[in-house]
Amino acid sequence: MPAQSPQKPQTPPRYRKIALKNVRLWEPCRPEEAFDWMAAYDADDGQPEPYPTRPIRLSDEYAPHLYVILRPDGALWQEGSLYLFESITEQGMSESSAANAAGDLADFMNKMDDSGLDFLNFDGPQSLRPTYRYRATLKSEIMSGARSKGYCNRKIYSVQGLYRWLTTTRNFKPKQVMWVSTTRQIPYTDRHGNTHIKDVISTDLTFKKSKSIPVGKYIVDGGKLCPISRENQDRVMRALFELGNPEMLLVHIIGLTTGMRVQTNLTLRHDSITQGVGDEDDPEKYALYGINVAFEDSPVEAKNSKEQVVMMPAWVHHMLHVYISSDRHKQRAAKSPITEDSQQYIFLTRTGKPYYVAKADEHLFDFSTEKGSALRHFCKKVIEVVKRENKRFNYQLHDLRATFGMNLIEDNSGDMENGKMNQLELLDILKNRLNQEDINVTMRYLKYYQDHPRLAQAQSGFEVHLESLVRTEMTKNEQRRANRPPPQSGVTDE
């Protein structure tokens, strides 16, 4: 008889988060106030009779995204789930923040289980109080290198949010302090360059993060951005031509010629394009045409929903118009639930889904929260190609924004050197083209440029070079694609 392989020990059940979509919101009420009655079991079988419900006042009828936390036995963890429910439906917590908070709280409860502690019991010494015990376990993860201080601080904030909710809305009164708060005053510079003092409250639960010393390796602008050198800009473009994906090529071109954030880039619509400009014979093909972003009548999204006008060269408008008129795009658009042509996304996958689903459109795409994952996956392919020539090359799509900023400074540096423009005027041009509110962020671009004077290339000269390359290579790509067999099943949805 053949020997049986030993069975793997089963992992014991744990606290876990569950994501829910399109949840109807209701509350019990008196029969005369009922809008509906909950579906009930047969009363003859001993089950409760149906009861009346009504929509929750001052609330939407449905919640697109909710998170609950299940106990190890599969039952709902009431405190954590109710906290998340109120945070999302009443406080407006974003979907991504709620997803993080749900995971953090599930992790907290699992660590309480591992330690044999009741998360509501603050009777014992400090080391056995739930908040301090959780901090100790996170500190061990930091010391081992498994987690960063920033990541662990986020978990601490999630746990503190739960306890603050318990004390303010559920009359929870811990017998001893859950943490100690301190207030300190720090100076800061506002977006207009004025210095102010503000109070900052911190607790003894969070981990102090030492400020990194600026070494000029990146620009802090919604993340750490690394401008791409002249040589690598050309290598990236050649890699894009080789990979032959028109959507990804155009997304990169937009990033390099406008400095658009990914969120805006991928939510551009047909009516974002100015038609009839920028063809090869247009003497004004390098002129700039504005795109309205985040205005009330524009479905194009922006960071923090900031209304702005992004300037795009005429020749890029023309490229986009040619693309949305192509059979390739029309086939993709035909699979999209959006039927109004002007509101259609420019960038769709082969199944008709946007690469980045705008919040207002989530209900059209099964409440998807897709935020550009296919694009990030494609960037890895670009990196692989470029590494044939430069083994140390790496980039993220947001680096194109920093690259555009550097090229724009280079484009205007001659006027500044000749006295035709001063530094404040240059900062104003850069701030407006990048649609930045905080002058401090804009100044980081100028400081980076001063530290790396040979990194950038003049934006105007770069665009002439880029436009010529793109027109030639897109023609070649279309010829190659015409002779290429159709994609096989199971391939990436790009």
TrEMBL record:
It comes from Pseudomonas amygdali pv. lachrymans. Keywords: DNA recombination. The keyword Transferase does not apply. The keyword Aminoacyl-tRNA synthetase does not apply. InterPro entries: DNA_brk_join_enz, Integrase-like_cat_sf. Residues 473-494 are annotated as: Disordered. GO terms for biological process: DNA integration; DNA recombination. This is Phage integrase family protein. GO terms for molecular function: DNA binding.
